[in-house]
UniProtKB/TrEMBL annotation:
This is Putative L-galactonate transporter. The lineage of its organism: Bacteria, Pseudomonadati, Pseudomonadota, Gammaproteobacteria, Cellvibrionales. The gene is lgoT. The chain crosses the membrane at residues 28-45, 66-87, 99-121, 160-179, 185-204, 241-259, 279-299, 311-330, 336-360, 372-397, 409-430. Keywords: Membrane, Transmembrane, Transmembrane helix, Transport. Residues 32-433 form the Major facilitator superfamily (MFS) profile domain. Residues 1-20 are annotated as: Disordered. It is a multi-pass membrane protein. GO terms for cellular component: membrane.
Length: 441
């Protein structure tokens, strides 16, 4: 009987949001969001620095594209994805701010260690260490954001949070490319890693742990707080809206991570550009396109969600589908200017629905399950996107090199775009699930 009741509650539309009389963080919440954006940015600085250094590492250690794909993705994601689940479970029951502060310090230190590597396997193990640290970053941070911002503001807040990768990618590509060109790839790793340790200290000393679920309209059942890990996992899997949206995100991320990891190498192999020029070009393009796309997407998404969650999730599906023609065409052009313009338009469609997608995911689960739910989302997205994406692109590129030569990388990148079609299908099914829940009330 209680299970039937709980299912009924899950299927209902969210009730009206009450006045925020219990929790009001005022301007301080924007400071917290700003610090968490920096944390997210530092995580992407430490990821993107590898992509701009791939050609240096290939020359230094005589690596194949498959090995470069391993460094770009699998080495990092092995522990990043798997440790994220138990760390998120801990975060749902303990101090999330401390967990994130320790995490950013660990992954930053391990990024600096990459600069001391003497072989492929040294680099591989150091990247594993970066993944261990970053496992404690994303899901707890999103759970903190959800407790500083009410549901009606979450799409916009998560869109601002999602500016972190854009800012971090810009710094990692532009500054990392310049430092590597002027001082060598080892100094690029050291320069990206060491400042993050100071950021961890700032987070630990200035950010307060918020009240868990204090801004949500539905009070969490105390029994739900003590729910066992396996019961929580089963509840998430039965939550079909969360599951379909999460799978839609994961298949879109396959393309996102794959392209972001290999774009610098694609430019360096195809166009007559220096490492610093490629880093600055891609970094600036990401910044100019990413920030407006995320802010506009979050602002519009909050309003579409208020009108119709089904329409909101379907719009995300259309946007990921529109990535395909722009990314595909960019791979066959001979002008770096035209290529960059098309990649920019494709990136806009890729990022514009991010905040809305995360907001729907967060609101679909109970406050006591959010860090764990986000960690499973990160697990799927990173195993599929960051683990398989760069690696599979490298493997296909090596296999096709005998036929396509230097264009084998472009061929491989084009093949991976099919993942966006699968992403669209899951977002469409998520819209149907929302309609089913509404009709069941």
């Amino acid at each position: 009987m209680s299970e039937a009741k709980s299912t009924k509650i899950e299927e209902q539309e969210p009730p009206p949001i009450p006045q925020q009389d219990k929790v009001d963080h005022g301007l301080y919440r924007w400071y917290v969001l700003g610090v968490l954006v920096l944390v997210y940015a530092f995580s992407y600085m430490d990821r993107q620095i590898v992509s701009i250094l791939l050609e240096d590492l290939r020359d230094e250690f005589a690596m194949t594209d498959t090995q470069l794909g391993l460094l770009s993705g699998l080495a990092f994601v092995l522990f990043y994805a798997t440790l994220g689940v138990p760390i998120a479970r801990l975060a749902d029951r303990s101090n999330r701010v401390r967990i994130v502060a320790i995490a950013v310090s660990v992954w930053s230190a391990m990024t600096a260690v990459c600069g001391l590597a003497g072989s492929f396997w040294h680099l591989f193990l150091a990247r594993v260490g970066v993944g261990v640290g970053e496992a404690g970053g994303g899901p707890p941070s999103l759970a903190i954001v959800s407790d500083y911002f009410a549901p009606k503001e979450r799409a916009f807040a998560t869109s601002i949070y999602a500016m972190g990768p854009t800012i971090g990618s810009f710094i990692g590509l532009a500054a990392g490319g310049w430092v590597a060109q002027e001082y060598g790839w080892r100094w690029a790793f050291l320069g990206m890693g060491l400042p993050g340790i100071a950021l961890g200290l700032i987070l630990y000393t200035t950010v307060r742990e918020p009240v868990r679920g204090g801004l949500d309209p539905v009070v969490t059942d105390p029994k739900q707080e003590q729910e066992s890990f396996f019961n929580t996992v089963k509840a998430l899997i039965r939550n079909r809206l969360w599951l379909w949206v999460t799978l839609g995100q994961a298949f879109a991320v396959f393309v996102g991570y794959g392209f972001s990891s290999w774009k610098p190498s694609f430019y360096l192999r195809k166009f007559d550009l220096t490492q610093a020029e490629v880093g600055s070009l891609l970094g600036i393009m990401g910044l100019l396109v990413g920030v407006p796309s995320l802010l506009a997407g979050g602002f519009i998404g909050d309003r579409i969600i208020a009108r119709s969650r089904k329409l909101a999730v379907r719009c995300i599906g259309y946007s990921v589908l529109l990535v395909i023609p722009f990314y595909a065409t960019s791979l066959v052009l001979d002008s770096w200017i035209a290529t960059t313009l098309l990649l920019g338009v494709g990136l806009m469609f890729y990022q514009i629905g991010y905040g809305t997608s995360v907001s729907i995911s967060l609101s679909a689960v109970a406050p006591s399950q959010r860090a764990l739910a986000m960690s499973f989302g990160f697990l799927l997205a990173n195993l599929l996107g960051l683990g398989l994406g760069p690696l599979l692109i490298g493997v296909i590129s090596d296999a096709a090199s005998g036929i396509f030569g230097e264009d084998s990388l472009a061929f491989s990148l084009g093949i991976c775009l099919f993942s966006m079609v699968i992403s669209f299908v899951f977002y469409w099914v998520a819209g149907s699930e929302i309609a089913r829940q509404k009709s069941a009330i």
